[in-house]
Amino acid sequence: MAEAKSWRADAERGVRTRTLRAPTGVTFGQVAREWLEKAERGEVENRSGERYKPSALRGYRRVLSRRILPELGGARLASIERRDLQGLVNRLKTEFSASTVKNAVMPVRAIYRYALEEYGLEINPTAGLKLPAVKGGRDRIADPVEAEALLAALPEEDRPRWATAMYAGLRRGELLALDWAQVDFERNKIDVEASWDPQAGKVSPKSETGRRRVPIPRELRALLMAHRLRQGRGGEGFVFGRTASKPFNSTTVTRRAVAAWRAAGLKPITLHESRHTYASTMIAAGANAKAISTYMGHASIQVTYDLYGKLMPGGEEEAAALFDAYLDTQRSRVAGASTGANR
Asked: Closest by alpha carbon to 143, among 258, 276, 289?
């Protein structure tokens, strides 16, 4: 009885201060559908404060309908506890890869972030979930000599497309959406302003920092200029499109490239790995991390460090040498000051 009275007093205090609300009878499935509809209209944003990409929402809708809603859709939103979600995660682990499980949990986290605001939930059951570690293989990176050989083995019409990934770091969607209006040969720059979604068409880049200006190296400039002349469109429309208004088919392009590389005895590379090749080349060339982050269109410089930190100079020996050199400089400065004072 004493515990019950104490709970009632705490609850009444919570109601007065608006930190406690009566539990809602709405189900997880209802809130999930509501969240999806609002996200598609742009009324709900991601954690970066940006609109969700159509491809991301399609993936979320798919994974919710296949993996989550069959088990949790009918449960009351407020009654789902962390142990319920952890049990679901543990069951998924027995059937699917770690990355699939992680992707399944992502929309659940987003839905509960929304529910905390809209439905006054006091506890987020997704907090502290133990997810399986994703142990993916390292992406392939081609060194400059290999990159040159890979480009040389391609059909002439495909070379500029892959070179723009290797020498400018554009993502596949950005290559699909690239327009000649964004290529400036006078100032040697590419303005990345859009990406391509197979259903929605042209969309904003992956993040706000995805809108960026990328320098055009000499090797890429020559290939792009020859490509524009060969197209004969007067520099209008898609840079790599099947026509001025139709983007290229990435599956067909990749299949054609793989066939050419295998015929030449070379190891194939993907467009995404070509982007990594660009970052690796920039690091080897001595570009600073901030510049690389900007040209890659990363959301923050931390993303750049997380992805490419191991490629950047500054190993143990170099760090120790820099530390020793700094100490020597300081000792010399102090010694010089002392000598001057004694004079």
From this structure: 276
Total Cβ atoms within 10 A of residue 254: 17
Region label for 73, one of left (φ > 0), alpha (ψ between -120 and 50) or beta (otherwise): alpha
Contact 98, 131 (CB under 8 A): yes
- Residue 66 DSSP class: I
Look at residue 214 and give its three-state secondary structure. Answer: strand
Say what percent of the chain tops pLDDT 90: 59
What secondary structure does DSSP assign to 7-53, as a single string? HHHHHHHHHHTTS--PPP--BHHHHHHHHHHHHHHTSSB-TTSSBPP
Residue type (1 letter), 246? K
Identify the sign of the CA torsion 289, 293, 294, 300: negative
The DSSP output letter for 286 is T
Q: Is 28 exposed, middle or buried (0-12, 13-18, 19+ CB in 10 A)?
A: buried
CB 199 within 8 A of CB 247: no
For tokens 């997704």, the residue is: 126
Give me 64's structure tokens.
Answer: 């919710």
- pTM, 2 dp: 0.69
d(CA 149, CA 261): 9
pLDDT value at 322 more than 70: no
Which residue carries 């554009």 as its tokens? 170
| Torsions phi, psi for 221 (to 5 deg) | -55, -45
**What pLDDT is stored for residue 341 in this prediction?**
59
Distance of CA 148 to the CA centre of its chain: 27
User: Taken in order 225, 226, 229, 233, is the CA torsion positive or negative?
Assistant: negative
- Taking the C-alpha atoms of residue 32 and residue 73, their distance in angstroms, rounded to an integer, is 8
The pLDDT value recorded for residue 99 is 86
Residue pair 317/304 in contact (Cβ under 8 Å)? The answer is: no
Confidence tier at 155 by pLDDT (50, 70, 90): very high
Spatial distance between the Cα atoms of 258 and 249, rounded to a whole number of angstroms = 14
d(CA 37, CA 42): 9
Helical (H) or strand (E) element with 56: helix 54-63
Amino acid at 217: P
Non-local CB neighbours of 198 within 8 Å, separated by 6+ positions: 55
Residues in the chain: 343
